[in-house]
Sequence to fold (173 residues):
Amino acid sequence: MRNISFSWLLLSLSFVVNPTLAESNIAVPDFELLDVSFKLSDPKKVAEIDAQEQKKVELIETLLRDGIANTASYTLVPISTEARKEADKGVGYLFDCTACSAALGRNHEADYILIGRLHKPSYLFSYIIVRVIDTQASKLINEFRSEVKGKPSKTIPGAIDNLLIKITETIPD
Fold:
């Protein structure tokens, strides 16, 4: 009987002492697109390009969320598009306001929130930018950027893989 009680005590303590058993709750709300490239005069072509950029944003979001969800020590916390829009006061608001992003994450019980942007300064390339924010401290932990050029189906997955490596090195597991 004494051995069983001692075993339960050790097992219970292992959950408290062993940090690898604890999980970090991470929220990844929708990314924003900041397109500052030269606008074409042909509305049909503009609509086509805008649709392509939205597909890139969706691919980035999917790959990043899947990467976080498939990391053993992380739990992906969902934030609806509506909740993000309600917290966002305009383009760049959540991206630039660490305290606002942290509050959005805390409201969804996330330990960290990844605020992202696809920044397009040119038709030739874009930057995927991810800000890692500690929601409890309302602090920007780090910002990561990855340049993407070429065919999105090839370049974006590689860029996201690189960003995930950096993110997992930054967020304690």
